[in-house]
Write a structure and sequence with these properties.
293 residues; alpha/beta; 10 helices; binds NADPH dihydro-nicotinamide-adenine-dinucleotide phosphate; binds dtdp-4-keto-L-rhamnose; binds magnesium ion
Length: 293
């Protein structure tokens, strides 16, 4: 089985290089090796030249605040490129594996959303990601759209690493405490993807949209506290005192993009249909911290 992996050097793309290696022959590309998602013509030529049975798209425009002022770039990469991949997958019978986000939801309420919940993005990033999802479902191609949240990895940039850096530099941090979600490891997501794509190739009825997040829930503030206290316990030179990691409401942290307050997502569908288990967010975060500290 030939697998085309796009966005090979992102947090998720890097872990997918490892997880997909045992599933098939992986052709892993980035924007500098024929797979620039902003260049539709060359992207299509690359997909046709590789002729994969599975396309795994880990590339995306993920700069949430910047997207508010770079709408065109975000839309080309997050919406138009996935649409093109889907049409090509439909034409050739390939399976398309794609990733989406909690930011497609408006974050109202306080209950976990399932896959049928109404999409109502608050940001350009969320809107363009939802357009990408919709195009894939509308194309009629076999697909796995995995909606995830708050992704971190040992390699790449993420919130946990930002908090570690700031905790070494500053004596006070202010972190939002009323946005609730689940930090999800790129390693977990990559392993899930490998299992799920094998199962979906064997049973096309598994095609669909799935919520794929780690177990449990937390706020950005409690997540930051967890990361900082873990680092302190491992002897890292942390400047901020524990009581100086302050919990603030979203209204006290203005940003260009509006983010959802409730990012809780139910993974019942994934667990039932694939028989897979989602470990708690702390298990993955602690493992990542052990690795980088
Ligand atoms: N990060 C998160 O918190 C979350 C991510 N997701 C989704 O998960 C998926 C993976 O995200 P993650 O790995 O964390 O993101 P990263 O930002 O770590 O990686 C994104 C990758 O996409 C690449 N990319 C950007 N623009 C282009 C382009 N025009 N052509 C080709 N490649 C491009 C980047 O390459 P380069 O380095 O060259 O810019 C980078 O390697 C995405 O679909 C994202 O929307 C969902 C929820 C949360
Ligand atoms: C740096 C910082 C951030 N924050 C807040 C801002 C934001 O609400 C939250 C997380 O900050 P980030 O910059 O990591 O947020 P963001 O880049 O929006 O993270 C999102 O990325 C995209 C790609 C997704 O798909 C989402 O699931 C989510 O992970 O923490 C603070 O409260 N204090 C701080 O000092
Ligand atoms: Mg970010």
């Amino acid at each position: 089985m030939k697998i085309l992996l796009l966005g090979k050097n992102g947090q998720l793309g890097w872990e997918l290089q490892r997880s997909l290696a045992v599933v098939g022959d992986v052709v892993a590309l980035d924007r500098h090796s024929g797979a620039d998602l902003a260049n539709a013509e060359s992207l299509l030529a690359t997909v046709q030249a590789v002729a994969p049975q599975v396309i795994v798209n880990a590339a995306a425009y993920t700069a949430v605040d910047k997207a508010e002022s770079e709408v065109e770039a975000a839309r080309a990469i997050n919406a138009r490129a996935p649409a093109l991949l889907a049409i090509e997958a439909r034409r050739t019978g390939a399976l398309l594996v794609h990733y989406s986000t909690d930011y497609v939801f408006d974050g109202s309420g306080d209950r976990p959303r399932d896959e049928e919940a109404a999409i109502a993005p608050l940001s350009v990033y969320g809107a363009t990601k939802s357009e990408g999802e919709d195009a894939i479902r509308a194309s009629g191609c076999q697909h796995l759209v995995l909606r995830t949240s708050w992704v971190y990895a040992a390699r790449g940039g993420n919130f946990a690493k930002t908090m570690l850096r700031l905790a070494r530099e500053r004596d006070q941090l202010k972190v939002i405490a009323d946005q609730i979600g689940a930090p999800t490891g790129a390693d977990l997501l990559a392993d899930l993807s490998a299992h799920m794509l094998r199962a979906a190739r064997a049973n096309p009825a598994l095609s669909g949209t799935y919520h794929a997040v780690a177990g449990g829930e937390t706020s950005w503030h409690a997540y930051a506290r967890h990361v900082i206290e873990f680092a302190r316990s491992r002897g890292v030179d942390i400047k901020v005192a524990p009581d100086q990691v302050l919990a603030i409401p979203t209204s006290d942290y203005p940003t260009p993009a509006t983010r959802p307050l409730n990012s809780r997502m139910s993974t019942a569908k994934l667990q039932q249909r694939f028989g897979l288990t989602l470990p708690t967010w702390q298990q993955g975060v602690d493992r990542m911290l052990e690795e980088i500290l």
